[in-house]
Structure formats: structure tokens, C-alpha cells
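Exercise 3.2. Students should predict the tertiary structure of the chain below and write it as C-alpha cells, then compare their answer with the key that follows.

Predict this chain's 3D structure.
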Amino acid sequence: MKYSILALTIVGILAGCASIPNGPSVAVMPAPGKSFDQFNEEDNVCRQFAQKSIGTSANDAATASEAKSIAVGTAIGAVAGVLGSGNSGGAGSGAAIGMVGGAAMGSGAAQSSGREAQRRYDIAYEQCMYAKGNQIPNGSAYHH
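Answer key:
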């Protein structure tokens, strides 16, 4: 029981680490002479385009990756617990330990998955904004 409480506490803490922004992490400047209202409209269109192009939000991708790793870690831990102790009590302890290990691995995988989704989002966003005549600063993910 104490392993389960500890595992759930750690999973909760690590799950909070998986949050990735759902907007662009790049700067785009309006074209000279373009009104702010026009730029704002294009920004909204390009945010929707970028979101659609990756098929999921960066946060959703990170959460899915983390949940999968936690589930796999829990299952592997349960099997290892049974094999190690030969009883169902070992399965519970093994599952708790596996959940903690899976959460740790899942947190890393979630962050990596979230960064990749964010990178793809940023590229799509910059492409859209550039196609509408806006300025992309040097050093961006996508630069003409």
C-alpha cells in the first residue's frame, strides 16, 4: 500500500513536468506597412494551420507518451514482482516500483515527444506566416 501511495505521488509530480506550450515558441514580425489587425488575423490562421499540420497538440503528444511509458513500466514491474517473489504480494510491490520507473522514463519520453511536436508546430507556423509575407527572424526553425 505504501508503495502505491509513493508511486502515485511521484507519477503526479512527473506528469506536471510534461506540460508543453500549445502556441508558437518563435517570433514572427509583421511585414512593413501591414496593420496589426491584419497581422493578428494571419497569426490566428497560422496557429490553426500549425495545429492541424501536427495532428495533435504538443501537450497531448507528451501526455500520451508519458501514459504509455507508465503503463508499460507498471506491467513489467508486476511481472518482475511475481517472478521475483512467487506471490501476488510481489506483483503489487513490483507494479508500484515499475510504475515509478515507468513514470521516470515516461517523463523523459514525454518531454522529448513534446519538444518534437513543438518543433514541427513552429516550422508549420513560420511557413504559414512567411507565405503571408511576414518576416521570419534569422536563426528560426524555418528561414528563407
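Discussion points: The radius of gyration is 21 Å. The chain has a mean pLDDT of 74.
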